[in-house]
Amino acid sequence: KRAYSVEGLVEQAEAAVDHLEYDLAIRFYKRALDMEQENTKIMDAAGEILAELGRTDEAKQMLLRSIQLAPDGPADKYLNLAQLMDGQAALAMYRRGIDILNSRRQLCGETSSEAASLCKSLSTALCACAEIFMTDLCDEPNAEAQCEDFLQRAVAVTTP
C-alpha cells in the first residue's frame, strides 16, 4: 500500500472527480479524513459528492459535522445541506448560506469576478427558498408573500 499525505489524498480525490469516479473520490476523501478528522474542507467536498451520489444520510452527517466545526462558512456547505432537507429545516440552511454569501459579497466589492459568482449563487439560493414556499411550505399563512419576497430579492441581485 502506498502512503499518501492528506494533500496527496485530496489531489487523488479531485482527480477521481475530474474523471467522474465519484466512489473512488469518496474513498480518497475518507482516507484523508482518517488522517485529519477535523478538516472541514475535505468534509465539504466529500459531503457534496455523497449528496450527488444519493447517499443522503452520509452527506448530511458529513455536512452537519463540518458546520459544527466551522459554522461561519463557506456557504456551499449550508446550500448543499439545504438541498437534502425539507421545509423549515431546509429554509434555515438556505438562510444561513444566504447570510454568508451576502457577507462575502460586501467584502469583495461589486466589480470583482468573485462578486459575479456570488451574485449567481445568491440568486439561485433565493429562488430555492421561493420554491420551498411553493411546495413544502405552501400551506403556511404567508407562503405566497414569502415566495414573492424571495423571488424579488433574487431578481434584485445583479451582477456587476
TrEMBL record:
CDD domains reported in the protein's UniProt record: ACL4-like (cd24142)
Entry keyword annotation includes S-adenosyl-L-methionine: no
Keywords on record: TPR repeat
A Pfam family per the record: TPR_19
Protein name as catalogued: Uncharacterized protein
Top-level division of the source organism's lineage: Eukaryota
Ranges annotated as spanning the membrane: none
InterPro entries: TPR-like_helical_dom_sf (IPR011990), TPR_rpt (IPR019734)
TPR repeats: 40-73
Source organism of the structure: Cyanoptyche gloeocystis
